[in-house]
Amino acid sequence: MDWSDAVVEALRRHDVRVVAYVPDTITWRVLGKLEKDPAFHLVPCTREDDAIGVASGVYLGRGRAAVFVQSSGFGNCINALGSLAIPCRTPFPVFVGIRGDLWEFNIVQVPVGRGVAPIMQVLGMSAYSLDDPSPEAVSFAVEGALYTTFNTRIPVGLLIGPRLSGGKRI
Amino acid sequence: MNRFDAIRFLVQHLGSDAVVANLGTNDCDLNAAGDRPENFYMWGGMGLTASVGLGIALAQPSRRVVVLDGDGSILMNMGVLATLADQAPRNLLYVVFDNELWAETGRQPTHTARVTDLAAVARGAGLRQVALVRELEEFQRVVQRALAEEGPWCIVAKVEETGKAGPLPSLTPDGNVLRFVEAMRS
User: Fold this and answer.
1) Taking the CB of residue A30, how many other CB atoms lie within 10 A of it?
2) B20 and chain A: CB distance < 8 Å anywhere?
3) Digit-coded pLDDT (tens) for A109-144
4) Do A57 and A98 contact (CB within 8 A), yes or no?
5) Which 131-160 residues of chain A touch chain B by CB within 8 A?
6) DSSP per residue, B11-78
7) Residue B155 host element (H or E)
8) pLDDT in tens, B126-148
């Protein structure tokens, strides 16, 4: 069991059934497992804001969804969160594979990667960084975030940092 | 055809189907045609009306979901047509009212006024049941077929922009969500 299994089990325990995403190598550690698991329905999207729209729709239909994006792609989500999901209070977790942090080789990933948490916070969401790769720590944070988002009806950010991903080296 | 006439016809033929209306003119016309708990009015999220409809369709597989979109919005997020085709929800009817204008912002002509064929885009994205209609009678025929068959259906309806048929619904976005979620219970 590693951190990605802890994420999968947390989603299962909190009745998340639809997962809307644009793939990247970090979040694929989780998505690759969800894809093989019949409890989850995956929706590959062409843009990250599309995934936010789908997740809002799932809540409207009395379901629970999660969104998985890469950090530069998170930049595409800003208006979808700010003018749809947050004011409508359609809750879901937004998992972000963080690039541009420790062990990054590519400068183009740095600006928006650094911006993910502050952008979420200024929009009115909480952003939790997953910095301890132990399954217990990941379980505690992810389950806590799922509990909070679905009870308070505000989307929540879960940032998968370099301690979990190992960064991105050439 | 006139958009309000088309929406009024559609609303008269809905049971407990869910409807998602694009921000602006579609919201106002749907509200004027008949406010109902199964209506969700987009206030923001331009380009995401079809995405929201897809999410509802996935979460409510035994209920039909009707999306009322506009050309300005779908031009902003044409990729969602590929996602609709890929997911292929059988309970989805996607209608785009193409007035060839950004009506809300001062009637500037959109790309569909000049070069872009949204029905061809929808087909190219992989949607199979696609109809392009210009007259109300034609719209009515296709809607009746689309409501009788399995989807996903895509109707591109060319409309003349004659203004909004009424005011925005008197609901806050959050209030609309709570009412809609309750309506999805039964």
Assistant:
1) 23
2) yes
3) 999 999 999 999 999 999 999 999 999 999 999 999
4) no
5) none
6) HHT-SS-EEEE-TTHHHHHHHHHH--TTEEE-SS-TT-HHHHHHHHHHH-TTS-EEEEEEHHHHHHTT
7) strand B153-158
8) 999 999 999 999 999 999 999 99
The partner residues of A67 in beta bridges, in order of sequence, read A20, A94
Q: E-strand spans in A5-155?
A: 18-21, 41-44, 65-70, 93-97, 126-130
Contact between B7 and B69 (Cβ < 8 Å): no
pLDDT score of A167? 87
Q: Does A82 touch chain B (CB under 8 A)?
A: yes
Q: Please judge whether B44 and A79 are an interchain contact, meaning their C-beta atoms are less than 8 angstroms apart.
A: yes
Q: Is the pTM of the predicted complex or chain greater than 0.95? A: yes
Q: Compute CA A158 distance to the chain's CA centroid, rounded to the nearest angstrom.
A: 5
Q: Which two tokens stand for residue B25?
A: 């003119």
Residue pLDDT, tens place only, B21-57: 999 999 999 999 999 999 999 999 999 999 999 999 9
pLDDT at A170 (0 to 100)? 80
Task: Tell me which chain A residues have a C-beta less than 8 angstroms from the C-beta of B184.
Answer: 60-62
